[in-house]
Amino acid sequence: MDVRRPSAHAIEHYRSALLLSLPALVGLAIFWYWPTIQAVILGFQDYNLMSGSQAWTGLENYRTAATDPLLGLTFLNTVIYFLMEVPLQMALALALALLVRRGPAWLRTVILVPTVTSMVVVSVIWGLMYHPNSGLINSLLGGVGVPPQPFLTSSQQAMPSIALLMIWKNVGFSMLFFLAGLVSIPRNYYEAAATDGANSRQLFRYITLPLLRGTVVFLLITNTVTAFKVFTPIFLITEGGPINATRVVVLYIFENAFRFNKMGYAAAISVLLALFLLVISVYSLRASRAR
Fold this sequence. Notes:
Layout: H1 8-42, E1 45-47, E2 54-56, H2 60-66, H3 69-100, H4 105-116, H5 119-129, H6 136-143, H7 158-184, H8 187-195, H9 200-211, H10 213-228, H11 232-238, H12 249-258, H13 263-290
Helix pairs in contact: 1-13, 2-13, 3-7, 3-10, 4-7, 5-11, 7-10, 10-13, 12-13
């Protein structure tokens, strides 16, 4: 069997590519892969952050997680937040992409400004806007005759308030990808369908949506991962309250690691969360390919 060896030019090409990629590979190894490996190892240990002592406990942390009622509550809260935030954000992003596709450039810039704004700044400002007595939102509601709302101090309104904040913050990111997907659809598809008598609703249903399937799957996976990692606004505004109404998984991981000094248990929960998100991502990809 004649196996051709790569030419000297090809070898040099691959060597140059490897050298150019080396800084990125080193960065991934140091700041991504190694911390992931460390988290997996810590999940099997009882690690004291203050003293640095470590003790191998095997599956004890995972047994604790299986019977921890507060972990179940935080996971349920995270799922509720996901259901409130992701579907509405994606629907709104698609509507905005359709709106700005032929709109002025300044409108796209306005929508994208929250996306590039610091999450800490956004959280602080929205926290002030949500203030039950002197907040801007209640002032506006009072102007139209609506009584003041408790927002973040209510166990029923706190999570929807956080979801609304994050929709405003992230909708521009999803809109940008939908806009790119819309631009990539050939115009002759629409022209041919319109010639056959299709109306705008049929064009959207039978051409736009099917050809945006890849974009929808990508955004669904990325937004799901982002939703399950929500932390900053809840940590800065509600700290999990009131009455654990906004206590989510990542906040619970943070508390166990840095407040309760349970690094091993926090690492075990992190591994479980990563596995859950991996399963969701793989299932979404396979379901999309099957269709």
